[in-house]
Inverse folding.
């Protein structure tokens, strides 16, 4: 029983990270109608940025995180401008391929600058807590709480602020949005900034627990893609719920069935679901 | 008739001639190896072109099927003691068959969903190859895979495929076979179905083309040839490991295809030779190469989406127009 | 051009819709429509914007499944089969936003339109079988015939992007015609074309009917419809509100109220 709760907690923790990454991905899909393959590597870059600030400038953890979020948000805007905007009116395959190009560029740039190998970030909150008989490190708990904070803040932003509702409007009807005077370029840039900034925050919180490598983004992005397809591309709720479900399934599956094949669950599940319902679990079909 | 044929295709015949006598120039072992792998990658890129360039479906499992072909041959010859040629045929068929099984669920989805689900399949292949230690040798893979079984030709005697020259002619033969097959397919009514699907899938369905069946066909044929390429690869390389099946492989073929030019037959070959040779030439740059290619991919897809071949065709069209205008201008001057 | 009643009785019913309904999340785009189309007719479907005309075409051509009701073509139910199968049975259509294979040339478009009548597959392609050669020739003949019928005989090697709007409309009709369909559905064939150029298209449509192909078209240009159609069906809010000859429809009070809003221009 102990093992079970332990796995559940781990599952919620990894689920939190999946949820944040998937949610950024689905937000961008909502306005661009193309899955941004480079998103996983922007996440990775966020982790590296924090690492860089910590090791080169010796600032505090939260300062490093803040810098990382700001830098990555800016980078997200740049990526949107030079990679995706020129391809906006073309076939989605082209944006797809451009995203792959950006993915390769970022991944190998990081490898060039920091090398192939992995780095560790010292855990700023190494204390262990015991909650309901389960051992959990403070850092993991922070990841879970932070994710909830981000999710709630984002929901409020989207529903309650003018800018947020504009994003939602544009996601639903891009051409119509332009007609009613919404500045499509600005909204796209902002959505990218938020999506990438959130990813950087999640990455920074996550990285003291695991090691960071230039390749950590690739597996993550593939899983995030699975999540948003299953949850319905463009659906924020779907991304969040899907993220947590995947986290739990992997954790429990890895613990009870097989840890070597842990990563396969997500992908096998996707193929099976698409075989039954080609538009995804909650999807109504996509572009 | 023959004269017409030569007149129309003199350039390609020249290239073919050069390819056939290439070993006469005594290239170094290193150059030979590059060319041999370029031929194999050309086969893989040509087959990628069929599903992506001509049929418009972004299969990101291409590396995975290359790996399936490679592992199939490796296992059949190393552990099963099978004749290489039989193993190669079976591996291609296995790759095609698995493509059929995967295509059934994934091809009913559109666009991005298909790309992602095939990517996921590719990742599954990579993970299974790495985790099934007993069968596939795990992450270290398999070594000491036997070379292609020697064959005896009349007049020439026995040919063993351990020398670069023999290997070169082997892969060249398969490349020519692939070019022949692709040429026949794309310039036929069947090819028209594929192109229709790429250009406007909904309209193709509306005019009576069974888009699902045709997409599946293209996918299966494409996977047959890339599986074959994988099998050849392993016969030359003599080792295999999970990275052969990774998404990196898929992205490499994507780069070769896009830079060389989609939806032409020369494009994939040019891309494979050009880019791979460039990759090798820039070997000293290490990871910078991939940084460069990532950027190149973005630039090409935005500014030169038809790749080098496409750019050449557009250039030639522009030159034709220019000369035509000059001619018209001259004629008008004469008349006036 | 109006047929006598006796001639109309003798013609067989080619297409029949029975209580055809399509619901889109609570909105009844097509509401229990009964209609029939006789062989050799030109039938026009008119109605205000949003009346359900294009949805009706989508239902007949298989792009949407009806929520309820049936579509019968030559006595056979076709409401549950895929669009490509319906094209195979002999119903082809054009789209309101001109749908073409825009990366290709005129002749390629026509070849693709005719592909449904060929059986060449992978094997035939690889081994240049007799079948593949024969079908290539048949295709070529059909393509040339259709190209000259639609007036693009001299532009076979032109790319679609170089064609005028009106020529593109003709090509779209050509793609539908080249496979020798029994029924052709034209969705606003003169949409966006200036009045000077519509005469050519009207003539084309009449020639299509004269060649033995039944025509059903959606149109907004009232004068054109009055002069060309044998029968008119009027839709409003998804329901059929009138049906008959142009004169009958013109004088129908419901139609005048809903759509014409005044005297009918006959």
């Amino acid at each position: 029983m102990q093992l079970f709760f332990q796995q559940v907690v781990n599952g919620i923790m990894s689920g939190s990270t999946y949820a944040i990454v998937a949610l950024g991905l689905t937000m961008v899909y909502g306005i661009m109608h193309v899955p941004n393959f480079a998103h996983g590597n922007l996440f990775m870059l966020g982790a590296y940025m924090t690492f860089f600030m910590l090791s080169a400038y010796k600032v505090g953890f939260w300062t490093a995180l803040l810098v990382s979020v700001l830098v990555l948000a800016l980078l997200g805007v740049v990526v949107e401008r030079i990679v995706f905007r020129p391809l906006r009116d073309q076939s989605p395959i082209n944006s797809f391929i451009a995203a792959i190009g950006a993915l390769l560029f970022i991944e190998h740039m990081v490898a060039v600058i920091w090398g192939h190998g992995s780095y560790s970030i010292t855990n700023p909150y190494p204390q262990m807590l015991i909650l309901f008989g389960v051992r959990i490190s403070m850092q993991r708990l922070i990841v879970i709480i932070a994710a909830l904070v981000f999710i709630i803040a984002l929901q409020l932003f989207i529903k309650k602020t003018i800018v947020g509702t504009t994003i939602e409007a544009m996601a639903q009807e891009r051409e119509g949005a332009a007609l009613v005077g919404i500045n499509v370029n600005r909204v796209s840039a902002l959505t990218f900034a938020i999506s990438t900034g959130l990813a950087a925050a999640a990455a920074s919180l996550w990285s003291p627990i695991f090691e960071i490598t230039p390749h950590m983004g690739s597996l993550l992005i593939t899983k995030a893609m699975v999540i948003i397809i299953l949850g319905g591309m463009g659906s924020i709720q779907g991304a969040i719920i899907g993220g947590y479900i995947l986290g739990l399934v992997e954790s429990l599956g890895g613990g009870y069935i097989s840890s070597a094949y842990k990563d396969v669950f997500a992908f096998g599940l996707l193929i099976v679901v698409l075989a039954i319902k080609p538009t995804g679990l909650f999807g109504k079909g996509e572009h | 008739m023959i004269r017409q044929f030569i007149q129309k295709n003199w350039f390609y015949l020249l290239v073919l001639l050069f390819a056939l006598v290439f070993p006469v120039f005594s290239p170094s072992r290193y150059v030979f190896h590059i060319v041999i792998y370029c031929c194999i990658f050309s086969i893989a890129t040509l087959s990628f072109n069929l599903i992506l360039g001509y049929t418009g479906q972004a299969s990101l499992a291409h590396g995975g099927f290359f790996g399936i072909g490679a592992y199939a041959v490796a296992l059949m010859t190393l552990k099963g003691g099978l004749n290489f040629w039989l193993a190669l045929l079976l591996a291609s068929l296995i790759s095609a068959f698995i493509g059929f099984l995967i295509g059934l669920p994934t091809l009913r989805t559109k666009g991005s969903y298909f790309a992602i689900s095939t990517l996921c399949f590719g990742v599954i292949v990579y993970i299974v190859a790495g985790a099934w230690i007993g069968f596939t040798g795990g992450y270290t893979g398999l070594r000491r895979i036997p070379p292609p079984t020697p064959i005896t030709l009349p007049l020439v005697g026995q040919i063993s495929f351990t020398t670069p020259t023999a290997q070169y002619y082997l892969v060249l033969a398969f490349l020519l076979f692939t070019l022949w097959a692709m040429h026949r397919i794309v310039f036929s009514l069947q090819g028209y179905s594929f192109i229709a699907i790429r250009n406007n899938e909904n309209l193709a369905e509306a005019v009576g083309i069974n888009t699902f069946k045709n997409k599946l066909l293209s996918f299966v044929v494409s996977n047959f040839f890339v599986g074959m390429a994988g099998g050849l690869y392993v016969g030359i390389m003599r080792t295999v490991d999970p990275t052969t099946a990774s998404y990196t492989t898929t992205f490499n073929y994507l780069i070769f295809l896009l830079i060389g030019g989609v939806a032409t037959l020369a494009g994939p070959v040019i891309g494979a030779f050009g880019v791979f040779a460039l990759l090798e030439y820039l070997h000293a740059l290490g990871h910078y190469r991939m940084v460069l290619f990532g950027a190149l991919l973005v630039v090409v897809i935005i500014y030169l989406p038809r790749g080098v071949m496409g750019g050449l065709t557009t250039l030639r069209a522009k030159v034709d127009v220019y000369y035509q205008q000059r001619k018209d201008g001259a004629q008008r001057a004469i008349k006036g | 051009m109006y047929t006598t009643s006796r001639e109309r009785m003798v013609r067989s019913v080619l297409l029949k819709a029975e209580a055809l309904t399509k619901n889109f999340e609570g909105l009844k785009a097509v509401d229990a429509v009964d209609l029939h189309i006789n062989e050799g007719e030109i039938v026009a479907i008119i109605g205000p914007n949003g009346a359900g005309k294009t949805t009706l075409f989508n239902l007949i051509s298989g792009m949407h499944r009806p929520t309820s009701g049936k579509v019968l073509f030559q006595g056979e139910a076709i409401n549950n089969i895929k669009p490509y199968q319906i094209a195979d049975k002999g119903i082809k259509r054009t789209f309101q936003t001109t749908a073409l294979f825009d990366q290709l040339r005129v002749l390629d478009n026509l070849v693709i339109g005719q592909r449904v009548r060929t059986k060449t597959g992978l094997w035939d392609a690889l081994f240049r079988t007799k079948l593949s050669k024969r079908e290539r020739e048949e295709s070529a003949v059909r393509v040339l015939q259709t190209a000259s019928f639609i007036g693009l005989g001299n532009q076979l090697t032109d790319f679609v992007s170089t064609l005028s709007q009106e020529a593109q409309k003709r090509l779209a009709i050509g793609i539908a015609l080249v496979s020798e369909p029994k029924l052709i559905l034209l969705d606003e064939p003169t949409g966006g074309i200036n009045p000077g150029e519509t005469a050519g298209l009207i003539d084309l449509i009449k020639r299509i009917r004269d060649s033995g192909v039944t025509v059903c078209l959606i149109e907004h240009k009232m004068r054109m419809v009055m002069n060309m159609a044998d029968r008119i069906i009027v839709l409003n809010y998804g329901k059929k509100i009138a049906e008959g000859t142009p004169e009958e429809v013109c004088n129908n009070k419901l139609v005048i109220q809903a759509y014409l809003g005044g005297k009918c221009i006959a």
Q: What stands out?
A: Chain C has two domains: 1-90+181-266, 104-178. Chain C has a mean pLDDT of 89. Chains C and A do not touch (no CB pair under 8 Å). The longest strand of chain C covers residues 13-24.
